[in-house]
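not sure who needs this but someone in the group chat was asking about ATP synthase subunit O from Forsythia ovata so here u go. i didnt clean anything up, its just raw.
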Amino acid sequence: MAMAGRLRSGLPFLRQVLTFDTPSAVAAQRCAASKSLLCPLTNTELSRDFATASASTEQKIKVPVTMFGVSGNYASALYIAAVKANVLDKVESELVDLVEASKRSLSFSQFMKDSSVTADTRVKAVNEISTQAKFSDITKNFLAVVAEYGRLSQLERVVQRFAELTMAHKGEVKVIVTSVIPLPQEEEKELKETLQDMIGQGKKVKVEQKIDPSILGGLVVEFGQKVFDMSIKTRARQMERFLREPVNLE
């Protein structure tokens, strides 16, 4: 109760820092080779589709969050392909499971990071994995693209960016709460309700807890690109700086 009360006292500040990106269309310059593998179409069909489709056809599917860089481009292309095939949740689940499995397997993790492995070997390996795991065509083709272009070492980051897109698609807001010990169920519920009240009914709060003894106590709440730091560690540093300031006795 006390924790939730302290959080509510900071609501005006939290409202200021809570921001959302507006949807934007994916750039037309996406790699054609990547698209041909991400979409379960032949190269001929895909070429004809891009040659004859109107601009409005491509604009029907927009990524909900603008992303940049290699990981952002791959995540955005995957998002569009998954939405078109109506398998967004399935693709996310498959890729998250694969990333988690790679963390548990040292040999697989090393394989993904080994730049000396040939493209053919990489593609063959991910195709075998996809077949054994019975992945969807979108996931299988996506992994083939990533393997062929030597991006397996960046797969985890791509999947993280893709998860951000799927959350935005569902109207979810990810909130990371860091504390010294796991929050009691009642306090977590109060925190979630407080954040939900701020965000409104159009969005759904998804809380992820992290444990970090170094913050000494209190909470650190993160959402979007903002951080609301209520930790004892930060307060102690602020007090230390205050005490070190020269005192003017005149």
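also Confidence is low (pLDDT under 50) at residues 1-37, 39-59. if thats useful
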